[in-house]
Structures are given as structure tokens and as C-alpha cells.
Amino acid sequence: MAKAFPFTAIVGQDEMKTALLVAAVDPSIGGVLVFGDRGTGKSTAIRALAALMPKIPMVEGCPFNCDPDKKPAGLCARCESGTEKLKSRASPIPVVDLPLGATEDRVIGALDLERALHDGEKAFEAGLLARAHRGFLYIDEVNLLEDHIVDSLLDVAASGENVVEREGLSVRHPARFVLVGSGNPEEGELRPQLLDRFGMSVEVKTPQDVAARVEIVRQRDAFERDPEGFTKHQQRKEGRVRRQLQKARESLDSIEVADEVLEAAATLCMSLGTDGLRGELTLVRTARAQAALAGRDVATLDDMKALAPSVLRHRLRRDPLDESGSTARIDKALSALFD
Amino acid sequence: MTIAASDEQLARWNDAAWAAACLAVGGHSLGGVRLKGRPGPVRDFWLEQCQALLPDATPWRKIPLHCSESRLLGGLDLAATLRKGSPVAGRGLLVESSDGVVLLSMAERAPTSVVAPLAALLDEPVLRLEREGIAAQHDCRLAVIALDEGVDDEALAANLIERLALQIDLTPLPVGAIDEFPWSREDIQGAREALAEVELGDQALQSICQATLALGIDSPRAALLAARTARVLTALAREESVSDEQLEQVVRLVLLPLATRLPGGDEQDAEDDVEESPDDSADDSQPPDNETPDAPDSPPPSDAQRESEDDKAPDAEQPNTDPDPLTDDRLLEAAQAMLPPDLLAKLLSGSMGARRNAASGKSGARQRAKMRGRPMGSLPGDPRSGARLDVMATLRTAAPWQRLRGPATGGARLRVQAEDFRIVRFRQRSQSVTVFVVDASGSSALYRLAEAKGAVELLLADCYVRRDEVALIAFRGDSAELLLPPTRSLVRAKRSLSALPGGGGTPLAAGIDATAELLEMLDRRGATPAYVMLTDGRGNVCRDGSTGREPALADALLAAQNLRLSSAAAGMVIDTSPRPHRSAAELAENLGALYLPLPNADARQLQSVVRQVVS
């Protein structure tokens, strides 16, 4: 398979890169929607993120990525009922691609045809949602997704559990994943329900200066001419980011949040008229993840302000015709309240 | 006898030939060719010559307009599965064409279900399958030739256009202008081998990026494809490093067809104008100087790259961002000279926004509408009745019974009986489309155009909530124009609305004809259209463009009766004249539409009334 372009070699687009890393530090933030101009490296960045993922313990051979350290309550039926001790194995956090043209049976899972035909037994074949459990589900061109697949996704993303009732099967398994999506607004709007599922949203724009463009082409060109060498050259940087991510994930729980941040988050949401709790909560969580990434042990007002646009952009109650001003409105509110 | 072709035509053919040679050498790395032109001897000859440049065994496959997803991407091979008694994956057309060329016929009408996978494969040559119980990955390197026969507002989807490096137009070429390509297969093979050695200097790269900005080309992809094309052209010319000659060719073959403005400015005025960016958050959270990754304290990552390439001392100097003005001017001159006159006219009249919108392509939702919606599971049924067989469901139904049914006969490993058949059922939620027809002529504009725009905006918001599509037709001067083909994208709807100018005559008949045409098309594709016409009903331009109130009115009424006969769409006429007037009422009567006088309604009032009719 082709090598993925390294994350650390992506030129510019800092907001997108930060948001992706923050989402990788704390899954409870709820992922990122990357929306914007064509050709800005949306898919490239998300696919590159997979290579930076730290490892987490998983039950060996479990199709549902069970966590061996979880009490029985958090396990799938198979691991729970297993008589022998669960074997643990460290595997990278899964980043699962939901490709174009995916059919429902492969997304939510279905009757295992092979075993049904061979042995006449009804067995469940896990789908993409099971594979993405405890990891990321990446949807490229999210606005081209078929409606009925979106429905299934929304349902599972909300409950953290996949309930399958089809072909005489009755199966449920935990499915908690972080949605990461990319898309182009020209291809059509996203349903508000789907927008809601994303913790952050980032707008990417094409760089309008020659130097940045030259750098983009140069990096891509160097990568294509010698993928091996290029990747090797980026190895040290990639390793640094990988360790940074790992450390941030470990230290997340011990990070303190300054009181002023909680207060500021509430004030900001109020002044922008966003729908309360989730916005505030996400502001605090992203500030914490940001502090963890920076290796600090206290999340400050600046952490929150830095990510506020990504957190609130898609939550503003908006006149659906007024696509423009979200970012500007947030910036205005930020400087009015905190400068 | 053939008429001698003009120099301009010969030059055009020459460019087309170079494009074919580039495709043959660069293949997947250049994405492919957007080939504009009608089917005919010229296009056929180009294709034949192009194929002749490729090695004998190279796949060269046509993707028909409505290629089914399972045929295109692959899925369960039913026949083989039944023979074998266990699931067998079938390879799709794309995988079968790997390392070759696919031809997309009538590309401007290709549905999203075809365009999107192609675009994804051009980005990353891996086909990921999660279909019909099969999960697989295939390497799949393709080059695409998109046969674009679009006229006016029909255009190839933008996400495909921007992934195809080479853009050529054979439309105006007579048979007399075509000639055999001057390369042999060996030439192509030689160029392929030489490609890895071709140097692309910083200077050349700077020039390319300058040119993309000067021509108002937004996507960074264009610069990347241009750089690769420059390399390929250099290899074909048997040169070692990219020179001005290749850069000029690249401007013609790759960049100019994407140009959205006249070259000649420097990057200071390369700011987006409002028309071109859907959202102007001027204070972007990342100032541009953050984007240049060559702050002195962190040596640019490319440095080491360059060291390894040409053994420079590691002095971490910044790349020279001072392009040679001479080169750039030459490039832009080439561009200027090549600009088609109509583009110039368009640029000068400021209608570029509309052109860009047209190029945004149709997001195939239209063809998809019939096969969308939630599959209501599958039902027992007979696939021969024209319904689609749900293969997976059928097999899954049959599977548990195999043992009971005993061994299959006739070499089959699986016994499927009639009662196992399952067919796919979709809940038919047909797409509703609201067509707004706005009279933007002088008589209306004077009074109500702003108000009508306001009303349309509010209605658009409604459609957004209901996930309807909207379309916009405007008429003024001497013709009607489809400003916005049916879309769900509010960004585009709003943009085309705000760009709507007012003034001129009232070609009412043309407006009604255009509406009828669109309604008919929507009916054909199974949507449920409704229309809202905002006019004062006082046409003064006839169908043939001549003026005169009486004949124009007669024409309009004829057109109205015709629309009424040809479409069952619900409609209403909103009388925008300051005093309710007989002519608009008469028009509504002939259309069989509701009549709504709005002597002094405001936009919101209008909205509530229309809402009752349309929903």
C-alpha cells in the first residue's frame, strides 16, 4: 500500500493540526469536522494522524477491541463470558476509514455469510463500527454519505452502543468512537444532527501567498519522488509528536483547570447564545487537552481562547443563510470579553 | 475538399497532442485529461492516437454513465459465490482497470456515486471496499479521461476537474486541423525512464505558484499538478531541467483553463473577492505569516531534502522568494495571449462569479434521488419484476437452510429457492425542489427586487430546514438564465442571489419557457418540483427577442399554457407590482397557478404565504 504523507510535513493549516491532536488527546471531546476549500490537505492530515497514534491495551482476538482493564461491565459478551483469563495486547488506536460506497451491512455488521453457508450457523460478523470502537472513524467527504448510513451512525454515536437486529440476529456491542470528517460546503450542507456530533469544526482555506504554495508543492514533490527517504527524514519530528501525544493522554486526568476558565467558558457561551452545556464542557475539555499537549499542568484562559473558534463555530445558532460570520462573531466576543 | 485549418486551430490540436503524450508518460500522477468536445471524428481520432501511445496491454475501459456502484467498486460475485458455496469477492471495473486509463463518458452528467470514488482514487490509489459483506483493499492506479460534453451550465464536477492536470478543448476543431501525433511508443517509454532525472528548479516552482495566484486559481492542487506536468513535458522534450518553454506549455495546458481572473496583478491584489469565497472570515485564526514554514529558528524541512539532492552546505538559508520578474512576465504574457476572447469579455463584465458557480458541477444528487432514502430492508419478492435483487439478503435467507435442503444439484454448492429471493425496497422519498423564478427587469427592479430577494432568502432557509433543493431562474433584458441549478448548497444559492443584477426589459415568455424546461427535467428525474414566480406580469420582450407589450404578452400567455400542459408542478405567481394588476393575475390563470397580490407585503409575510403552497 502507498505510504501516507507524514503529519509533520503538512505546511501551515495550524488550526486543523491542533484540533486533530487535541481530539486525539481526549476522545470525549468528540472529534473534528474539517470543512473547507478543496486541495487544502484535509484528508492528508487526517490519514497522517493514524501514524501518530499511541498504543492502547486490547483483548487479543476480540473483534470488538475490548479493553482488558475494564470491569466486566465494559466488555463485549464474548470477553465477559470467557472462562480463561483475557490476553492483553498493545495495539495502536484504530483509525478506521468509512469508504465511499460502503453498505449498511459492513458498517453496522451482519450475519457472517461464510459461516452460515459452511456450517449453517448464525454468527455475527462485526462491521466498521466495531473496528472503530475506542478509536476514530474517519469519513471522507462526509456530505456525500448516504442518508441511511448517517442515521445508523448518529444513533450509535449517541448511545455508544451498536444494537443489531437483522437476519434473525440479535447482537449488541459497545461502539464508542470519535468521528472525524472532512467535506466541502459546495457539495451540500450537513444535517444539523450530524454537525452536533462533532466536538470541533475547522475551516480550512487555501494559502494565498506564494511562499506557502511553493512550500506545499515542494514537500509533496519531495515525498512523491522518494517516499521512503522523505518519511525517514521526518521520523524524528513524527516521533516527537507521537511522544507528545502519548504524554498528553497520560497526564490529561491530572491537569487542573483554572477557575477563571470555567467562568470564561460560561460567559462566552452565554454572550454568543450557544446552547449551553455542551459548548462549555467542550471548551473546558479542549483547553485541558491543549495544556496537556503543551506539557503544562494547568489549563489557562489562553488555552481556552485558542480553541474557542474551533469549538463554537458550528454551534452558533445561525441563520442558515449566513454562513460567513461565525468565526468573526466568536473572535469579536472573545476580544470584547477578555481583552 | 477540406478547408485549411487556421493557425489557431493547428496550435490547439498541437496542445491536445501534448496533453495526450503527458497522459501517456505521467499517467496516474497527473490525474488525467478533461477532454471537452462533442463525440465525433476529431475526438475519436484523439482517443485512438492517445491509446496508441500506451503499451499494448494497458487497460483502457469506458465507464458508462450509469454504472452501478457494485459494478464500479466491486462487491459480491453472485455466480461465483453460488458455485463455490462461500462468499467470493468480485472485482469492480476500477480495479480491473488498474494501471490503465478509464474513460468517463458524458462526464458532465456523471453521478456523484461515480465521480466521488474516482476523485478519491486520484488522491490515493487505494480502493477500500466495505460492501456486501466484503472488506478488502486493492491498489488501484488510474488515469481518467473525462469526456466532457457539457454546454453552458452543465459542467464536470469541480472535485474531479481539479484532480485532472490536463484540460483541453476540441470543440472548435475541424477535421482539417487534426494530424497524427508525432511520438512513437518508444518515445513515450524513453520519456518515462527519463522522468525520474528531471530537475524542477526553485525558480520554475516559484513561477508556477505565482501563475496560479495571478490567474486566481485557488486550489493548491493545481500548482502541484502543474509542477508534475512540467516535469513530464521536460522528459518528453528530452531536456534535463524544466525551462521556460515547458512553463509556457504548462500555463496553457494546466493553468489557463482553470483561470478565474485576468493575470497581471501581483499577489497584493490576489485577495479573494467576495464572490469567490463563500465565507470571509477576514481575521483568519492563522495569519499568513504563520504559514510560511521558514522562520529562521526552524530550518525549513526542505533543506535537508535539498542537501541530499545536491550536496549543498547545510546553511539553512531561506529559499529565494524573489522570483525572476522576467520569467513571470513571460508566463503571464503567454497566458494573456492565450485567453479566449469570451473569457475576457466575461472577466470584464464581472460575471466570473456565475462562471465559477457553473463550474461547481452538479453534485449528482439529482440522479441519485431515485435510489436514495432509507432502504426499508428487503422484502421477499421476485427480482424479475424489475426490482433490484438484494443479493446479500437472499443468500443470508438461504444460508441457514442448506443442510435441510440437502446437497445442491447441477454443480452448484448452494440451493437457493424462489422463496429466498429478497429485493431491495427504498422508501420513495422523492426530493422536493422549489424553483424560484425572479423577474429582475427594470420595471420590477425599481420596486421590488430587493424585497423579492429577501423573500427568496427566507424561503431558502425554509428549504434548508426541510432539506429540499432549490433552483433559481432570473429573467431580464432579452433572456432568462438558470442562475442556479437545483442544489442543496445554501452557500451557492445565496451567492448567486446576491449577484443577481436588475434592470432591462421583461422577457416574460423566456422566463416561463426556461421554467417549463427545468420543471420537465425535474419531473423526469423523479423529483417533486414546485415553482414560485415573482413578477409584475408586464412582459415587453417577445420570445424572439423583439420588443412590444402586446405581442410579448401574447407570447407569455402561450408559454404559460404550454407550461401548464407540460408539468403538473404546483406553482404560484406573486404579483410584485405596487398595485395589483390584471396582467399578473391573467398570467397566473393561464399557468394554473395561485395568484398572490402583495401590494405592501414584506418579505416575512410573503414567506408564510409561500410556505403554505410549497410544502
TrEMBL record, chain A:
One Pfam family named in its UniProt record: Mg_chelatase
EC number, UniProt record: 6.6.1.1
Gene3D superfamilies named in the record: Magnesium chelatase subunit I, C-Terminal domain, P-loop containing nucleotide triphosphate hydrolases
Catalytic activity annotation: protoporphyrin IX + Mg(2+) + ATP + H2O = Mg-protoporphyrin IX + ADP + phosphate + 3 H(+)
A GO BP entry: photosynthesis
Pathway noted in the entry: Porphyrin-containing compound metabolism; bacteriochlorophyll biosynthesis
Cell membrane keyword on record: no
GO molecular function, one term: magnesium chelatase activity
Ranges where the AAA+ ATPase domain occurs: 28-208
Swiss-Prot/TrEMBL keywords: ATP-binding, Bacteriochlorophyll biosynthesis, Chlorophyll biosynthesis, Ligase, Nucleotide-binding, Photosynthesis
Keyword Ligase: yes
Family: Belongs to the Mg-chelatase subunits D/I family.
Annotated function: Involved in bacteriochlorophyll biosynthesis; introduces a magnesium ion into protoporphyrin IX to yield Mg-protoporphyrin IX.
Name of protein: Mg-protoporphyrin IX chelatase
Source species: Congregibacter litoralis KT71
From TrEMBL, chain B:
EC number: 6.6.1.1
GO-annotated molecular function: magnesium chelatase activity
Regions of compositional bias (Basic and acidic residues) in chain numbering: 304-315
Assigned keywords, A-Z: Ligase
InterPro entries given in the database record: BchD/ChlD_VWA (IPR041702), ChlI/MoxR_AAA_lid (IPR041628), P-loop_NTPase (IPR027417), VWF_A (IPR002035), vWFA_dom_sf (IPR036465)
Low complexity: bias regions: 284-295
Ranges of residues in domain VWFA: 433-613
Enzyme class: ligase
Compositional bias annotation for Acidic residues: 266-283
Family: Belongs to the Mg-chelatase subunits D/I family.
Record-given protein name: Protoporphyrin IX magnesium-chelatase
The species this protein was found in: Congregibacter litoralis KT71
